[in-house]
Design goal:
six-stranded parallel β-sheet, Rossmann fold, about 450 residues, 3 domains
Length: about 450
């Protein structure tokens, strides 16, 4: 079976590599020549555990190919995935120009039946726009080539995307014809042999499922952060509350960890897009608007604690920051809480010295020389007035507390991810602030 994946970003590259891993012939297409040249050499543009090895292995086996020429990927291709970016516009709506451009280009070059599948996260109704773009391109060529469209949203967690793709909780597919269903069954058969379900549905429902899933998870995070803030006010311990409610099977213990807000490429963008879709249809998503408001405020909580501790006198303070990516095991800094914290620190006159295991290059690309980048975590602490934890990387979980204490001017830690035990920190002489526990 031969397929094409257009877009070699996070979703497209993982999708193409994992399909190749199970024996499918995959051609990944991207307009960025430098990126394609690097991929052909086995140099991947993102950090994702296990991905580099899969890409390298399948290039060597001749199952994974990279090109800038969409037309060359279409002969004998049965399924074409559109996995290009859908960045948010200023009003929060998803920008579909890249998706529709791929559809038009495909229509200009296809010569046989093709199943065109949107893998990008797109609003309800996008598949119809893709179909129209394909039809318009075919009409201009004055040819009549049959095709199908489908929606196959991804549910990949950054930092665990390869495992999520190879061992999915579920596979959601929206389609319109039996022919398309048979193709998708064939394509996903290697992933369903162990009982992972493929859920077939109509296309609008599949498009909505992606937004609904991410919005539900974002809601859990913002709800828990709201509870954490109330716990601090009332003297309750949010860690105990989390354990108490997480044992309820109806709630579960995932996505109820208090912190400094969600970020990344999915939750912020998808919540905004769903709110915008509702607004365009004269309905207000009141709960999601509150979710977004709570999350925006939560990104300032750690800075506010710092500001209060130093009585507003932050000018000239040196602040050590551990963690830059929005979550561990990724170099993704899109909508990362660390960006908000850094902006506020710099505006208050602080000097920021930061370290992240993999996101340093991305941070420098976004922030330039506005902050100082350390080569390892303890280097950030020399003569620093306080340590802030913004990302819960595993290597930050069991640090040398005596070393931290000896390097900081004062033993003050602001833990935005609650990765340390408050009692232990205080017994070791630290002034310790976290989320959801009264200091």
């Amino acid at each position: 079976m031969k397929i094409s994946v257009v877009g070699t970003g996070y979703v497209g590259l993982v999708t193409g590599a994992c399909f190749a891993e199970v024996g499918i012939d995959v051609t990944c297409v991207d307009i960025d020549k430098q990126k394609i040249d690097n991929l052909n050499k086995g140099i991947i543009p993102i950090f994702e555990p296990g991905l580099e090895e899969i890409v390298e292995r399948n290039i060597k086996k001749g199952r994974l190919h990279f090109t800038t020429d969409l037309a060359s990927s279409l002969p004998e291709c049965e399924v074409l995935f559109i996995a290009v970016g859908t960045p948010p516009d200023e009003d929060g709506s998803a920008d579909l120009q890249y998706v529709l451009s791929v559809a038009s280009e495909t229509g200009k070059n296809m010569n046989d039946y093709l199943l065109v599948v949107t893998k990008s996260t797109v609003p309800v109704g996008t598949a119809s726009k893709v179909k129209n773009a394909l039809n318009e391109a075919l009409k201009k060529r004055n040819v009549n080539i049959f095709f199908d469209v489908a929606s196959n949203p991804e549910f990949l967690k950054e930092g665990a995307a390869v495992d999520d793709f190879l061992k999915p909780d579920r596979i959601v597919v929206g389609l319109e014809s039996e022919r398309a269903e048979e193709l998708m069954k064939r394509l996903y058969k290697p992933f369903t042999l162990n009982g992972h379900p493929v859920i077939f549905m109509d296309i609008p429902s599949a498009e909505m499922t992606k937004y609904a899933a991410n919005s539900m998870l974002a809601t859990k995070i913002s709800f828990m952060n709201d509870i954490a803030n109330l716990c601090e006010i009332m003297g309750a311990n949010v860690n105990m509350v989390r354990k108490g409610i997480g044992s309820d099977a109806r709630i579960g213990n995932r996505f109820i960890y208090p912190g400094i807000g969600y970020g990344g490429s999915c939750f912020p963008k998808d919540v905004k897009a769903l709110i915008k879709t509702a607004d365009e249809n004269k309905y207000s998503m009141r709960v999601l608007k509150a979710v977004e408001e709570v999350n925006d405020d939560q990104k300032s909580v750690l800075f506010n604690k710092l500001y209060k501790h130093f009585s507003g006198n932050l000018n000239g303070k040196v602040i050590a920051l551990w963690g830059l990516s929005f979550k561990p095991l990724t170099d993704d800094m899109r909508e990362a809480p660390a960006l908000v914290i850094i902006e506020k620190l710099l505006k208050a006159g602080c000097k920021v010295v930061a370290y992240d295991p993999v996101a340093m290059h991305e941070a420098e690309r976004k922030l330039g020389k506005t902050i100082t980048y350390a080569s390892e975590q303890y280097e950030t602490l020399k003569n620093a007035d306080a340590l802030l934890i913004a990302t819960e990387w595993p290597e930050f979980r069991f640090p040398d507390l005596h070393k931290i204490k000896s390097l900081l001017k004062q033993p003050i830690v602001f833990d935005g991810r609650n990765i340390y035990d408050r009692k232990e920190m205080m017994e070791n002489g630290f002034t310790y602030y976290c989320i959801g526990i009264k200091s």
